[in-house]
Amino acid sequence: MPIKVENLSKIFGKKTKEATRLLDEGYSKEDILEKTGCTVGVNRATFEVEEGEVFVIMGLSGSGKSTLVRLLNRLIEPTEGSVEIDGQNLATMNKEDLREIRRTKMSMVFQRFALFPFRSVRENAEFGLEIQGMEKEERSQKAEEALELVGLGGYVEQLPSQLSGGMQQRVGLARALANDPEVLLMDEAFSALDPLIRKDMQDELLDLQEKMQKTIVFITHDLDEALRIGDRIALMKDGSIVQIGSPEEILTNPANDYVEKFVEDVDRSKVLTAEHIMKRPETVDYDKHGPRVALERMREQGLSSIFVTDRSRNLKGYVTADEARQARESGIEKLSEIMKTEVPTVDKDTQIQDIFNIIHDSPVPVAVTEDGKLRGIIVRGAVIAALADGNEVDADDA
Ligand SMILES: Nc1ncnc2c1ncn2[C@@H]1O[C@H](COP(=O)(O)OP(=O)(O)OP(=O)(O)O)[C@@H](O)[C@H]1O
């Protein structure tokens, strides 16, 4: 279910008209508070979240994330603007329809889940279905399915106090999933967890999402978390969205100084992947070409080695210029006789740090393959440049 947000604003306080006017005139959030007593919660947010997307809203404390996410399910009334869920405008919906949509189409997961201490894990996961008035048997079954999904299948009879913090948070997630909502709103859902468990939960959410393909809006103040799980990220400052983009766009192409400062300390080696620094490979054909063609191509391109593929671009190996030259001199005509088949290979999602470790003692560039087919090559200079400053480098210049 896609979400479409247009010009959405929330100004807290009484003199919202005056505050809006000052906002339009370019006054800052602080000035507006001083002059009108109003707080700018969200300022004219416009974006769309696609079905199946993980859309992260990120920003420092007070930047407006929670207000924005509560505007999405109208727990907060907007001062201006519109939210459309699956083409339906939330603002014009009556209370009953709104309640219905919150119950069945959108679920919210919070940082600290209010689990009922004297109810079992299953009963806790059933809660949303219970208030919908679903029969006991049906809701138990749905709750158990959701608990199974989050890896708590064996704990349904336990009490929350018998679970770790991470497991309790999974119960919260299961409660949201039991509703089988199309939209999941997750407000700092993993922020209370310690770092290792948090990372597990992030991985798990991504795994789940691969199967579920929900529309997820995920709020976090943690940049690493945003970069890890977001398909796209909206970065907020003082109520305004300052940039929306994929993690790579935010890192490599910050919209302004604020974003640049924000992402300054990110460990890019963990975010940028093979896909970002690979270039188009020069190859020779295993079945068609011999050492002569290989040597010519290497000379033309100034290469000291070249990859060999078959007609379907399956990677077979590589030959070096020295060996191709020797082969020519000794009359060898087949690449198979001189080709080396041990090729350093990564896939497109391999992190740069890992590529660095491989390329470090490799005599040839690293091959990037997908299902055995050669998609690109990575040269050492590109890895070093990316590690050095994170800017997307043209591998040719590196
Ligand atoms: N009910 C309210 N009344 C008045 N001001 C509010 C209200 N709720 C939020 N605000 C103000 O709106 C701004 C945005 O707050 P919000 O809670 O959305 O930020 P946030 O990014 O979620 O912060 P945090 O990460 O600390 O939760 C803040 O300046 C906050 O003080």
UniProtKB/TrEMBL annotation:
Residues 277-335, 339-393 form the CBS domain. It is an enzyme of class 7 (translocase). It catalyses: a quaternary ammonium(out) + ATP + H2O = a quaternary ammonium(in) + ADP + phosphate + H(+). Signal peptide: none annotated. Its main location: membrane. Keywords: Amino-acid transport, ATP-binding, CBS domain, Cell inner membrane, Cell membrane, Membrane, Nucleotide-binding, Transport. This is Quaternary amine transport ATP-binding protein. It comes from Alkalibacillus salilacus.
